[in-house]
Automatic annotation (TrEMBL):
CDD domains documented for this protein: PLPDE_III_DapDC
InterPro entries xref list: Ala_racemase/Decarboxylase_C, DAP_deCOOHase_LysA, De-COase2_C, De-COase2_CS, De-COase2_N, De-COase2_pyr-phos_BS, Orn/DAP/Arg_de-COase, PLP-binding_barrel
Catalysed reactions, semicolon-separated: meso-2,6-diaminopimelate + H(+) = L-lysine + CO2
Enzyme class: lyase
Signal sequence coordinates: none
HAMAP family in UniProt: LysA
Recorded metabolic or biological pathway in which this protein acts: Amino-acid biosynthesis; L-lysine biosynthesis via DAP pathway; L-lysine from DL-2,6-diaminopimelate: step 1/1
UniProt name for this protein: Diaminopimelate decarboxylase
Domain Orn/DAP/Arg decarboxylase 2 C-terminal: 29-369
Gene (name only): lysA
Origin superkingdom: Bacteria
């Protein structure tokens, strides 16, 4: 059951009315439900009960310290893609030895820091990265735990911008070359082969491609075993989709049940890197109608959130649900385009939405907990939104609204002539 429900004619986050959050913290504002995050994480963790496993939350989906802290307290692992994300995990109380480091452009500095704090594993994405990691680990006199991110060449059947497991994508090591590169890894003295991993894309609403990728990874693991290379863990990445509109993705329990069947009897620890499926439906973006601009052709509602706050509709033509916080029946229902004040035609959060609106009304953009705030920018010199975590009937400001002064605090004028 969603933690965002209508009660007494008003949308609530857990037991807090969204209008009271808007009154206290202003808009636009991201609102997260602690209980929703916990339940989504536990759905993964509990579905893996009885098999050795680690659920590593993909920090890129939502890197707010409050969110990471909620997950760290449950014992979650974390999937990071930068030194910045590593520092966030540590600052949020996450354990370094539960961190896997993905991403195809790790710098020597990032590798060094990750080795010093003792992360669980590097997901290596190229032969060149392997050599670099060997060099950095040798300089520090340690062994780097590695897994190769393999590109299994399966079509995730999702939006091309978030599909990553095809041969033509930049990610991972071609599965045809994987054995040779594992052999090389095994020969390098400062690398310790721990696992194999893949991640084929995001917002998958059918798990068939994920299970196809799993089959291919198991074949690879058997080939490696024949060469005397023992892989201890298999990391299947993230990618499980969520419902934005009327998609019907498998639940984590259904997907993981099928994974468990395929790996039964194998001596493998299972790792996953879910992002969206843990936080997307645990958050909304709260925004206020600033002005109404009905025209002959279109009705525009200009809201105070914009593409800089939530870029998914502009970037991927993503459909996000948008609901009135307090639905009203005293004005006519019309078809509205919900647009922000940014000077771009692509600045919309929703088009053709049937809503009864008046100036000053509050709206909630649904499923905004993943790839929402983290992808926001300061375009048009707009300070970034506040973020609030709801815990039953209490609210915590987990990121205060940025100020205009902060926007150019690091900039300077030229010296006097
Ligand atoms: N692991 C790796 C290596 C990834 O690249 C990603 C996502 C994940 C895990 C988490 O995937 P998830 O469970 O969230 O699907 N900004 C886009 C999504 C980009 C996903 C990038 N990689 C969006 O808003 O739809």
């Amino acid at each position: 059951m969603s933690e965002f429900q209508y009660r007494n004619g008003e949308l609530h986050a857990e037991n807090v009315a969204l209008s009271s959050i808007a009154a206290q913290y202003g808009t636009p504002c991201y609102v997260y439900s602690r209980r929703a995050i916990e339940q989504a994480y536990l759905a993964w963790d509990q579905a893996l009960d009885g098999v050795p496993h680690l659920v590593c939350f993909a920090v890129k989906a939502n890197s707010n310290l409050g969110v990471l802290n909620v997950l760290a307290r449950l014992g979650a692992g974390f999937d990071i893609v930068s030194g910045g994300e590593l520092e966030r995990v540590l600052a949020a109380g996450g354990r370094a030895d539960r961190v896997v480091f993905s991403g195809l452009g790790k710098t020597e500095e990032e590798m060094r820091r990750a080795l010093q704090v003792g992360i669980k594993c590097f997901n290596v994405e190229s032969a060149a990265e392997l050599e670099r990691l060997q060099k950095v680990a040798a300089e520090l006199g340690v062994k780097a735990p590695v897994s190769l991110r393999v590109n299994p060449d399966v079509d995730a059947m999702t939006h091309p911008y978030i599909s990553t497991g095809l041969k033509e994508n930049k990610f991972g090591i071609d599965i045809a070359q994987a054995v040779a590169i594992y052999r090389r890894a095994a020969s390098l003295p400062n690398l310790d082969i721990q696992g194999a991993d893949c991640h084929i894309g995001s917002q998958l609403t059918d798990d068939t491609p994920l299970l196809d990728a799993l089959d291919r990874m198991l074949v690879l693991i058997d080939q490696l075993a024949e060469e005397g290379i023992q892989v201890r863990h298999l990391d299947l990445g993230g990618g499980l989709g969520v419902t934005y509109q009327n998609e019907t993705p498998p639940t984590p329990g259904e997907y993981l049940g099928r994974v468990r069947e395929k790996v039964a009897g194998r001596d493998l620890t299972l790792l996953f890197e879910p992002g969206r499926s843990i936080v997307a439906n645990a958050g909304v973006l709260l925004t206020r109608v600033n002005l109404l601009k009905p025209t002959e052709h279109k009705n525009f509602a200009i809201i105070d959130a914009a593409m800089n706050d939530l870029i998914r509709p502009a970037l991927y033509s993503a459909w996000m649900g948008i609901d009135a916080v307090r639905p009203r029946d005293d004005v006519p229902t019309l078809n509205w385009d919900l647009v922000g004040p940014v000077c771009e035609t692509g600045d919309f959060l929703g088009k053709d939405r049937e809503l009864a609106l008046a100036e000053g009304d509050l709206l909630a953009v649904r499923s905004a907990g993943a790839y929402g705030f983290v992808m926001s920018s300061n375009y048009n010199s707009r300070p970034r939104a506040a973020e609030v975590m709801v815990e039953d009937s209490v609210t915590h400001l987990v990121r205060r609204r940025e100020t205009v002064a902060e926007l150019f605090a690091g900039e300077s004028l030229l010296p006097e002539a």
